[in-house]
Amino acid sequence: MIGNIYAIAAVAIIGGGLFGFDISSMSAIISIPQYKCYFQSGPVPEDHSECTGPDSDVQGGITAAMPGGSWLGALCSGYISDIFGRKKAIMIGAVIWWIGSAIICASQNVGMLVVGRVINGFCVGICSAQVPVYISELAPPSKRGRLVGAQQWAITWGIMIMF
Question: Do the Cβ atoms of 116 and 101 come closer than 8 Å?
Fold first, then answer.
């Protein structure tokens, strides 16, 4: 069992970076031809040179699915944490994220992609609400701000690197 607060916070900080990647993941793929042709609204051209991707309202729905799920997850996170405790709530969030990622990877259509992103967003909402509280409960007062701030800093770096 690990009792070092820096080791515990390091895991949370890595998770924060991954949350940042997940939050901004659409920015990296919406312009590539494979995405545009696979999720094309309407018929795909024979030569795949003129794929325009999903319509703007559909693309907006795909992109907004993640923050929508995050909003719902953040609302439910306190209730989940009250029932299971913070540590188990974070573990539940990790399992939910895995399920959402599997759905996203297996996406055959826009509906599957949206559902996977909502599920992943739900996890991001749970964990981004519970991880800072969990770290601050474990850390001594002299290190609390530094460790919670490092987790938020990692989220920002994850967004920046993926964007």
Answer: yes
Query: For the chain, what is the mean pLDDT?
Result: 87
Yes or no: say if 148 and 135 are a contact pair by the CB < 8 Å rule. yes
Q: Contact 64/118 with Cβ under 8 angstroms? A: no
Decide if 16 contacts 154 (C-beta within 8 A): yes
**Tokens encoding 99:** 């399920």
Two tokens at 144?
Answer: 């609390």
CA atoms within 13 A on the CB side of 5: 18
Chain centroid offset of residue 43 CA: 31
Q: Give pLDDT tens digits for 115-148.
A: 999 999 999 899 888 988 988 888 888 988 888 8
Q: Are 126 and 78 in contact (CB under 8 A)?
A: no
